[in-house]
Amino acid sequence: MSDPNTPIPFADDDPGAVRIADEVVNIIAGLAATxxxxxxxxxxxxxxxxxxxxxxxxxxxxxxxxxGDKEVSVDLYVVLEYGINIPATAVKIQEKVKEAIENMSGLxxxxxxxxVQGITNIDKIKENQNKDIIE
Amino acid sequence: xxxxxxxxxxxxxxxxxVVSLMLxxxxxxxxxxxxxxxxxxxxxxxxxxxxxxxxLFLISIRLLIAGVGGGGPKDLIVRISDGGTVRISMSAVRKxxxxxxxxxxxxxxxxxxxxxxxxxxxxxxxxxVLPEMNVxxxxxxxxxxxxxxxxxxxxxxxxEVDIFFNTISYDAKEK
Lengths: 135, 175
Hints:
The structure holds two protein chains of two kinds. Chain A is α+β, with helices and mostly antiparallel strands.
């Protein structure tokens, strides 16, 4: 893992460097992944779960990035919907996240590893969300 | 846990059983205090005792790691490409298989164990079934459902599905 505020040189003739925090790349990746049909959510593990219980909204949940000078590799921990084709959905996630990171940060994405942590019914998730709204 | 670990565990527990038996005998006064004191005095400073203690300590650590670490891989790799790998946690695969099998009419309380081969999966499961169901037919439907679901969702073939019906009851939550 590099320094949290990795300088990203966009082009050789740039007058300066642009710095993007790792957290920003994580959020870009997390938001892009959850937009793919079939993705029920991100899996933040025990720490992420505790943070959410404490009321902290974590947009970078389930995303780990390793940022180099010009490249980035990403690990995504996702929960997918029951009944979808996992390899096909994973490819869509890889494409979508790669496109989002490269367009928004200028970093080259070298690899995106998908870790499917769970398969769930989307109805159950919607039910829980409705419960939260009512509460 | 591997076979070698199981053999070591068997000897280790046997040794602990003997030690605990000796402690019980000492506690209830079957061994005279002087005898025990003499034996301990003889053992004091002996390299053999140190070697045995070190060996026991190493065995304890080995068994602790084997016990906590669990057996088998934690992830199932379903796709490797230049863009990255796609892995599914074995617990997610297990829950998926249990959910698929439970969708067959009359089947409940499904518990599955998954072993991953080179290109296929071996599944063992226990399940409950309603009394009015035909067991051979239900087994066939479970196998068909699980194999199709795994193929369509995970992209892996299932080579065998062993089913053990451990209960016949109306109540799905009854064990």
